[in-house]
Design brief:
Blueprint: E1 13-15, E2 21-23, E3 31-36, H1 43-54, H2 56-61, E4 64-70, H3 74-84, E5 89-92, H4 97-101, E6 105-110, E7 113-118, E8 121-125, E9 131-136
Parallel strand pairs: 3-4, 4-5
Antiparallel strand pairs: 1-2, 3-8, 6-7, 8-9
């Protein structure tokens, strides 16, 4: 069963970079941002990851862990993480279990060819393991992940504001804030 807003997210365990195994249960007490992206080292996915990297200190200050997820191998993830100097871990979901849990495998079309691929999406899970926000790819706003704290204001991407006490959706594109 796929995740739903304001509902607990089922625990999962998956291999990640730096030899880690990530489990949602092991992250209780912290907020978690999970962003799904199609492929390591591609322009859009690189830009998205760089946005999270550039705002990582603000996420940490808001007691929030960040994880990127794709179907790429751990070796590919390690290379991508190292090259881009990501301070957060990348989760390898080769069997698509986490992608299916978050319902991000969608029918896509490229040059007239249809295929099943990862839909760029970002999720915010609170410190109790409850899904609080979901954001799918925003055309025209750049990589939504890179919008955490970037862009020219609330009209573009996501804005990280910490420390705060609530989540809000106050602009044409979601305006996310994180619990302190």
């Amino acid at each position: 069963m796929a995740v739903a807003i304001d509902q607990p997210v089922a625990d999962f365990e998956a291999p990640a970079t730096s030899g880690q195994t990530v489990s949602l249960a092991g992250l209780k007490g912290k907020q978690v941002v999970i962003y799904f992206y199609p492929k390591d080292s591609t322009p859009g996915c690189t830009t998205e990851g760089q946005g999270f990297r550039d705002q990582y200190a603000a996420f940490k200050a808001a007691n929030t862990e960040v994880f990127g997820v794709s179907r790429d191998s751990l070796k590919s993830h390690e290379n991508f993480k190292c090259k881009q100097e990501f301070p957060f871990e990348l989760i390898s979901d080769k069997d698509e279990a986490i992608c299916q849990l978050f319902d991000v495998i969608k029918l896509k079309k490229l040059y007239g060819k249809e295929y099943m691929g990862v839909d760029r999406s970002t999720f915010l899970i609170d410190k109790d393991g409850v899904l609080r926000q979901e954001l799918a790819w925003c055309e025209g706003a750049g990589a939504c992940g890179s919008g955490f704290g970037c862009g020219s204001g609330t009209e573009q991407g996501l804005i990280l504001s910490a420390p705060v006490r609530a989540l809000s959706r106050a602009s044409p594109l979601p305006h996310w804030t994180l619990f302190a």
